[in-house]
Amino acid sequence: MRNKNSDGRAESGGPARAALPASTDLNQLRTFLAVHRSGSFTAAARLLGLSQPTVTAQIRSLERQMGRELFERLPRGVAASEFADGLAARIVAPLDALAAVTGGEGGSERPADPVHLAGPAEVLCVRALPALAPLVAGGLVLRTATGLTDPLLDELRSGRHDLVIATTRPRGRTLTAVPLMDEEFVLTAAPGWAARAGGPERIAAEGPAALHGLPLVTYAEDLPIARRYWRHVFGRRLERRAALTVPDLRGALAAVVAGAGCSVLPRYLCQDELTAGALVELYAPEDPPINTVYLVQRPGSAADPQVARVRDTLLEAAHAW
Fold this sequence. Notes:
The protein is α/β, with parallel strands linked by helices. The protein has three domains: 15-103, Arc Repressor Mutant, subunit A, CATH 1.10.10.10; 115-175 and 298-320; 183-291, D-Maltodextrin-Binding Protein, domain 2 (3-Layer(aba) Sandwich), CATH 3.40.190. It has twelve helices and eleven strands. The protein has helices spanning 26-38, 41-48, 52-66, 82-103, 121-137, 149-157, 191-197, 199-206, 224-234, 249-257, 267-276, 305-317, and strands at residues 71-73, 78-80, 115-119, 142-146, 163-166, 176-189, 217-218, 244-245, 262-266, 280-283, 290-297. Strands 3, 4, 5, 6, 9, 10 and 11 form a seven-stranded mixed β-sheet that branches. The protein has a two-stranded antiparallel ribbon with strand order 1-2. Strands 7-8 form a two-stranded parallel sheet. Strand 7, helix 9 and strand 8 (244-245) form a beta-alpha-beta unit. It starts with 25 loop residues before the first helix and ends with a helix.
């Protein structure tokens, strides 16, 4: 809704278009933009080479000059107000252009900062990196990290990463998430073990008891993926110990193909082996367990054009996954 002047006429533009106070310091705007991009005072301090109290003081000073709060302080990081989003959109291009001019030596253009992408090793290596290879060939500087979702999301909040591929939707308002892909889980084994299991008909009749003699290959000791499959498909709790644990599903896949036993794997990871006959799907339920994978970023990080390119490329590639 538009504001009105004293004579009743509507003003053009909302509060985000208000003029900056004449006393606004350029360093305050740089600090504001760093906080907006990183979603954290601590992360912004690290990016700028400042102490966290200095960043806090500059933001408070800018908020006093603006006469409004720019960021809501949260238990983890900060959330930008609508006004702050509008302000960031106004100043990002001029400040980035100024940084490009002043940051280079001898008039040369400043090298682009790397884009930091993190996620499960399997999704990164099998899906994300092939999709991003053309960008790297075209000059994108990319750094990747692997790990479990919860620690990676904490690192994203602190500014260590720009984007995270997450196996669960993050809680809270400091991060934004969009669905990237669905993982369908399949129970699979090499042909020899599949024959010993007796085929889908026996499993349908006897349930998991038909799998009693098959060694179980899993991602971790607590059997996270297998437990979910047992609960969803068989309606029972998995009461077994893994014969082999491999903290990389590609390793679990290799072990199962070599005859180590059975495992529950994402279909995208083992589809080639299933098609070639190196693996057999032991049982095909009408309602297979599916997990949604999300692409997560901090609010404001899309203002970085390289981060936006990576995000958009992954979302576009996901249509074919």
